[in-house]
Amino acid sequence: MPTKGESTKKMIIDTAAGLFSKKGFKDVSMTDICEATGLSRGGLYRHFSSTSEIFIRLISTEQSFNERIKAKEKAADILKDALSELEKEILDPKRSLSLAIYEFASIDDNRKLFTDLEKKARKKWMDLISYGIETGEFNPVDPEEIAELLLYYYQGIRMWSRVTDIKRKSAKNYSNLILRMLTGEDK
Amino acid sequence: MPTKGESTKKMIIDTAAGLFSKKGFKDVSMTDICEATGLSRGGLYRHFSSTSEIFIRLISTEQSFNERIKAKEKAADILKDALSELEKEILDPKRSLSLAIYEFASIDDNRKLFTDLEKKARKKWMDLISYGIETGEFNPVDPEEIAELLLYYYQGIRMWSRVTDIKRKSAKNYSNLILRMLTGEDK
């Protein structure tokens, strides 16, 4: 079970995520986070010293597929679950952190942080694709090429979802295209 | 030949583009644009009444492929030229307006503007893809699916180019993937 400190931290991060999605990074202050969480200034600063610290924690939580790969689950199942998850995110523009991410990147010099995040995300997808090729479930594609497609296409559609209505069909197009390139089948 | 007023307008838009790329939308003021262009306040306001007006003009200038299609040029040639152009843009992150676009969208209610822009860009690509399918140069893909891939993948890679180093290989991966999906060949 998480300790009280851990659940408070999680609550702060979740609440801040809502603010960052809505207002970007620049316009969210520690005071805003106090108000939204109902914590006192002391209560908040016990856990985090700045909005940057909260934001970094928030964007660094991506899970890899390693456990499911180790458990020898089918690559296609892992892929389909991940694509469903991404589809859901695409259709929930209110939770898009894109604006906040790019504001954050433009204020501080966080190039190294983002380079690491990008590398980690790319590796995560390349691992899954390579695994699926090994088991013979996926077509013999270039894992890096498809990993980039997955990452950048996703990011682009998330960005557009902030400024236009992304239709269910566009979210489906995304996951179907990738599924078809990897397995030859549509969902 | 453009009139003096037209060239001043163009100079203002070009200069402002540099500022918006660097600082986003929120942090650029009319005063900044006066300073960067060397115009007086009166000189600038004669042409534009706000940074919004300049910005809208800037992002609304995309050219369609219609003239080249009417001239019956080869679809593959039009596509290759367009992809080379996009590759160049990807490798020039200093000219990325992504941050400014999303800041602009989050400040004012510009949903309609962006919906129109997206529709226009989507149509432009769908027209080219449909034309190439008609002439038999392109595979019988779903034009809308590939148009979305083109647009969103591009936007995503542009966003990442602001915060990490996008390598020449990633720009090539983008255009090669699209070329291969449409024509079956690599560049």
In summary, what is this structure?
The structure is a homodimer of 187-residue chains. The first copy, chain A, is an all-alpha fold.
Report on this model:
Two copies of one chain form a homodimer. Chain A has 187 residues and is mostly helical. In chain A, α6 crosses α8. The first copy, chain A, folds into two domains: 54 residues, Homeodomain-like (Arc Repressor Mutant, subunit A), CATH 1.10.10.60; 121 residues, Orthogonal Bundle (Tetracycline Repressor, domain 2). The first copy, chain A, is globular and about 55 Å long. Chain A starts with a helix and ends with a helix. Chains A and B meet through α7, α8, α9 and α10 of A and α7, α8, α9 and α10 of B.
List keywords for this structure.
72% helix, 187 residues, 2 domains, globular, mainly alpha, Arc Repressor Mutant, subunit A
- From the 3D structure, determine the CATH topology of the largest domain in chain A: Tetracycline Repressor, domain 2
What general outline of chain A do the C-alpha atoms trace?
globular
Distance between the termini of chain A: 37 Å
Helix/strand-derived category of chain A reads mainly alpha
CATH C-level class of the largest domain in chain A? Mainly Alpha
- Give the quaternary arrangement of the chains: homodimer
Largest chain-chain contact? A-B, 38 and 38 residues
Write the layout of secondary structure elements.
The structure is a homodimer of 187-residue chains.
Chain A: H1 4-23, H2 30-37, H3 41-45, H4 51-59, H5 66-70, H6 75-90, H7 98-107, H8 111-134, H9 143-163, H10 168-183
Helix pairs in contact in A: 1-2, 1-4, 6-8, 6-10, 8-9, 9-10
